[in-house]
Design a protein that fits this description.
About 50% of the residues lie in helices and about 15% in strands. With about 950 residues, it is an alpha/beta fold.
Length: about 950
């Protein structure tokens, strides 16, 4: 049998320059300014995500959305656009939320939803009641009717009392005494004998002899005893009590009427205030009246007048609007108006205002019937909110009647109200404390809000989302009340949409509270922490649970979503919506870039971008997508570059941005952010980091490639020296970084893959009996990824076989157990990192080897492409380890495999010899014993 023919090595050709990047020429001539429809509100290249998000936002029930996608992909702006799209034309009733006093338990205030704008009106009306009562009672108790009733009772009393006093005086006269009225009764005292009409003074009494004093005292006692026995004093006391009661009844009747009038008026208007239908009709009436008013107002203005509200047109009638003469500036050559012309204009203006008054009355009449029907319907079918408010008003009315002293004027000589000193150091008037039940906490005011309510919270904290319950103040000694409770975004977005960053939600520990609230459909103030359950953080004020109806949209990057997707509550309640970070290059994709560019110029007030500039932006999009077949849809990054290009275009005095402006922006950005990259190159230049790129071959040494990313804008590739030492043993492939736990699972998997390849290739029948130790030299940080698999296998084969490999080439790529090349990430950064190093060292015959699947990922900078055109830098794409072997060893792959196998066999023989020698030695030792 003849010898097998050696398989000839077919030379692998480097990639062509046109394979190394994408150049945008589609529908762009590079000179004309882009002219696109700026009203285009499309969300670019996210059709699947948009459809999923629309479903999540439109479906009824407790279904919410988690929008998963990369940063700068227009995630948040897309949410706002879609919400506006699905709610367009649909009127959703916006509501205010108020918190008010609970008379049965003041620690548990009640809440109610009211139509938009009604909350502010209710707060204003309720809080004005104390002042209104004071004024109303002052007027009522000073009125003619009230004073007439008081005088009538007093006159009746005076007549009866006068008759009794006359009888008492007659009894007193018998004893030469005179009756004297005290605060409680009529008593008698002695009088002077000389002057019967003048009471004796104390000085005169004590100046009299003792027997005279005794005689006079006896007379006074006898007179008082007779008056007491007659019962006349008691009759006066009874009359006083009767009068006092009658006056109190009259006063209470006035008070009750005034209080009743105020609360009756409120109840009568409550249906108009809180009925959604009534408020809608009122708004329509005002809008129509305003439209017609504008027509008349313009006509009046032409005559030189303006309409002023609530002024009299004539002495007999009053209209909603009337005129005032406006003196307009006249030119010098313009003749002054005659009195007749002025009079004629005034008459026309009066006529117009009369017409407006008639038109206004017609509009009111047009809506009157509908308004009455809506009000009657509201009375027949009152909702829970109206019932709650009416119950509160009844309780408030009773409170006012029981505490009328709060609203009545105090006598001038009465002591001022006592002040209560709180622990926090503040002073609170008793009256102020008593009037707290009139306070209305307008938690959510949607008076000026527009449909739909969308809250995009950028600062996620517990208090921002869920508000405050007053517990903070209570912990420092300030007693909380109804006004210390504040609403957060959850309540403010009720009936609308709340957009939150899922990562921030998890970091701030509010995830569980959100899930609990959404599951129950009710919002409760307070923290769910253990300290709160123990009563250490909770407030003494605890409002009743508030019904909640809000759609939550979480914004999340993929890794955040992956960490939570197995949570059953989260998975059941949130529908995932996935946004792409790139799109396939096509006419539509380029058109999207054109539309976005034009819209961004308008929105950010940038100068126009011509076709060449847009072409560069598309190429930059390909760079972001790391593909010459796709473009990134992370338009936030595109916008960032546009702003920089606009700056440089203006700085250079251009009137529009061109391709050179975009290129300049990228170059300047590179300069600003290349600190770490230049530092690394400096270490290589100084020899601190050892990287061998000589044309001489080396055994057990190769240049691998890695990517370093410090931030979104700071990413670069760098070469890394990989070495290997092989020796006889049983450990197989060993990684230094793995042994000291500096490598991650992906790199560990790559080591196992290499070990499997070697055993499968060279140890089908017998164990290879080999140890090979791989090390990434001068690697002092963490190490992960399998993109160095090809390089590691090549250096292992070199070490085992003793065959040298090229140092002026670097390689990157993953591999399978069968030696197939597999694609990796960051290929452009890796190639450019090695290119920059070789350029600094003279850029001779050098290059990079990549997996063949990464050809479509190439979008290299112009400098690299030019070097490949000149043949100074080569890029090879390999399908398997065998092609990489031929490139680096310069030998057919079969010869290298044979050399490796022979070395392994030689190592096996040496091991066997050592084993035999060891066995014979042990035999001699046994014989000796």
């Amino acid at each position: 049998m003849g010898k097998k023919k050696k398989k000839e090595m077919l030379p692998l050709k480097p990639l062509l320059p046109e394979q190394l990047r994408y150049t945008c020429v589609q529908n762009l001539d590079g000179t004309d300014e882009v002219k696109i429809d700026l009203n285009n509100n499309e969300i670019f290249s996210q059709e699947r995500g948009v459809a999923a998000l629309e479903y999540a936002l439109e479906v009824e029930g407790k279904i919410h959305a988690v929008l998963v996608g990369p940063k700068n992909s227009g995630r948040k702006s897309s949410v706002v656009k879609i919400i506006k799209k699905i709610t367009a034309g649909a009127e959703r009733e916006l509501k205010d939320l108020i918190l008010f006093h609970n008379f049965k338990d003041e620690t548990k205030p009640k809440s109610v939803f009211l139509p938009k704008g009604a909350g502010k009106e209710l707060k204003k009306n309720i809080e004005a009641i104390p002042e209104l009562l004071e004024i109303s009672l002052r007027i009522g108790l000073c009125s003619v009717e009230y004073m007439e009733q008081v005088n009538m009772v007093c006159n009746e009393y005076n007549t009866a009392k006068k008759s009794i006093i006359e009888k008492i005086n007659k009894i007193a006269e018998k004893y030469q005494c005179i009756a004297c009225e005290t605060a409680t009764e009529l008593l008698v005292t002695n009088i002077s004998i000389k002057n019967k009409n003048t009471p004796m003074s104390d000085e005169e009494f004590f100046a009299s002899p003792q027997d005279v004093q005794q005689k006079l005292n006896n007379k006074v006692k006898e007179a008082n005893a007779e008056i007491k026995n007659s019962g006349l004093n008691k009759k006066i006391i009874d009359i006083d009590a009767l009068v006092e009661n009658k006056l109190k009844e009259i006063k209470n009747a006035v008070i009750q009427k005034k209080v009743g009038d105020i609360f009756d008026a409120f109840e009568k208007n409550s249906f108009r205030l809180f009925s959604y239908q009534c408020r809608v009709l009122e708004k329509k009436k005002e809008e129509k009246a305003s439209e017609t008013k504008d027509i008349f107002e313009n006509e009046v203005k032409k005559l030189g007048f303006v309409l002023v509200p609530n002024m009299k047109i004539t002495e007999k009638e009053t209209n909603p609007f009337c005129f005032n003469i406006v003196e307009s500036a006249k030119k010098e050559n313009e003749q002054k108006e005659t009195e007749e012309i002025k009079k004629e204009k005034i008459n026309k203006a009066v006529k117009l205002c009369a017409e407006w008054s008639e038109e206004y009355e017609k509009i009111c009449k047009e809506f009157r019937d509908e308004y009455v029907k809506a009000e009657e319907n509201a009375k027949k079918n009152p909702d829970e909110s109206i019932d709650k408010i009416l119950d509160f008003m009844h309780d408030l009315e009773e409170y006012c009647l029981k505490n009328m002293d709060l609203f009545l004027e105090k006598p001038e000589n009465q002591k001022p109200q006592q002040q209560v000193i709180t622990i926090g150091g503040g002073k609170e008037d008793e009256k102020e404390k008593a009037l707290k039940c009139f306070k209305i906490n307008l938690l959510v005011d949607n008076t000026s809000a527009k449909h739909p309510i969308i809250i995009d919270e950028k600062e996620v904290t517990f208090s921002k989302l869920f508000g405050e319950d007053g517990s903070k103040g209570e912990r420092i000694g300030i007693k909380p009340d109804i006004m210390s409770i504040k609403a957060g975004d959850f309540l403010k977005a009720n009936g609308g949409y709340l957009v939150l960053d899922l990562y921030d939600v998890c970091v701030e520990n509010v995830f569980r509270k959100i899930i609990t609230t959404l599951k129950s459909g009710k919002f409760e103030f307070g923290d769910e922490s253990l300290l709160n359950h123990l009563g250490l953080l909770s407030s003494s004020i605890k409002p009743e649970p508030i019904p909640i109806n809000v759609k939550i949209v979480f914004i999340a990057e993929e890794w955040v979503y992956d960490a939570l997707k197995d949570n059953s509550d989260f998975n059941n309640m949130f529908t995932p919506v996935f946004f792409n970070k790139d799109t396939r290059l096509s006419e539509k994709a380029v058109e999207d870039y054109l539309n976005f560019t034009a819209g961004c110029c308008k929105a950010k007030n940038l100068m126009p971008f011509d076709g060449s500039a847009v072409a560069k932006l598309v190429e930059y999009g390909c760079r972001l997508a790391e593909s010459n077949q796709k473009a990134s849809v992370q338009f936030g990054l595109i916008k960032k570059l546009m702003i920089e290009a606009d700056y440089w275009a203006k700085k250079n005095g251009n009137d529009h941005a061109t391709a050179e402006s975009v290129k300049k922006a990228l170059e300047e950005r590179k300069k600003r952010l290349s600190f770490y990259e230049e530092k690394y190159q400096e270490y290589i230049r100084e020899g601190t980091i050892l990287v061998d790129t000589s044309e001489e071959k080396r055994v057990g040494q190769i240049n691998g490639l890695s990517v370093h990313q410090f931030s979104e804008d700071i990413t670069f590739g760098k070469p890394s020296k990989i070495t290997c030492q092989s020796y006889a043993g049983k450990e197989g492939i060993v990684s230094v970084q793995r042994n000291i736990e500096m490598s991650g699972p992906s790199h560990n998997m790559a080591i196992e893959t290499i070990d499997a390849y070697l055993n499968g290739k060279y140890g089908k029948t017998k164990p290879i009996g080999l140890s090979a130790q791989i090390s990434f030299e001068q690697c002092y940080g963490g190490l992960d990824g399998d993109s160095a698999s090809l390089a590691e296998l090549l250096v292992v084969l070199s070490s085992i076989s003793g065959l040298p490999i090229k140092q002026n080439f670097a390689i990157t790529g993953s591999m399978s157990q069968f030696g197939e090349a597999q694609p990796i990430g960051g290929v452009n950064y890796k190639i450019e990192g090695f290119f920059d190093l070789m350029k600094e060292r003279g850029l001779a015959d050098c290059g990079v080897v990549i997996p063949i699947q990464n050809i479509n990922d190439l979008i290299l900078k112009d400098e690299v492409v030019e070097a490949t055109k000149e043949g100074r830098f080569k890029i090879y794409a390999v399908k398997s380890i065998d092609e990489a072997i031929e490139l680096f060893f310069g030998l057919p792959a079969e010869e290298v495999h044979i050399a490796v196998k022979n070395k392994i066999e030689n190592k096996k023989i040496k091991i066997l010899i050592r084993l035999c020698l060891s066995l014979s030695l042990w035999k001699k030792i046994f014989k000796m014993f």
